[in-house]
Design a protein that fits this description.
The protein is mostly helical and 138 residues long. It is built from one helix and no strands. The protein starts with a helix and ends with a helix.
Length: 138
């Protein structure tokens, strides 16, 4: 029975050594994994720091785009306003021309009458002068 106990002891001792070797190997793997994790975290931080200028540039581009769109919208709004003003001016001008048309026709008629009166006056003046001369001779 001592031999059997000794054999069990040796088997248990070998198993304990094997488990210790596994634990040491796992501790070494754990250390390597921790070092790798630390390296990956440092690499990740470096990548994040490298992205900052890209994010700033992207934010700047977005800001420029928004400013450009706002300027375009403002110019479009002013153009629409100018078109409305022009349409209102054209409508007012058409109304004014419609109101002026009868006045212009009346003025043309009055000028024709004045011209006719001046011609008739010249004729009558000439005939009156001739009449006075003829009566003065007689």
């Amino acid at each position: 029975e001592v031999v059997r106990c000794n054999l069990e002891f040796q088997a248990s001792d070998a198993e304990v050594r094997s488990v210790r070797q596994n634990v040491e190997m796992l501790d070494a793997l754990k250390g390597e994994a921790a070092a790798l994790l630390k390296q990956l975290n440092a690499s990740l931080e470096e990548e994040r720091r490298a992205l900052i200028p890209f994010r700033q540039r992207e934010a700047h581009q977005k800001s420029l785009h928004i400013d450009g769109r706002n300027a375009f919208d403002e110019a479009d709004r002013k153009l629409v306003e100018m078109e409305q003003d022009l349409a209102a001016y054209d409508a007012g001008r058409a109304d004014a021309e419609a109101a002026e048309h009868p006045l212009l026709e009346n003025e043309v008629r009055l000028r024709e009458q004045r011209t006719n009166l001046n011609e008739r006056d010249d004729v009558l003046w000439g005939e009156g002068g001739s009449f006075l001369q003829a009566t003065a001779r007689s």
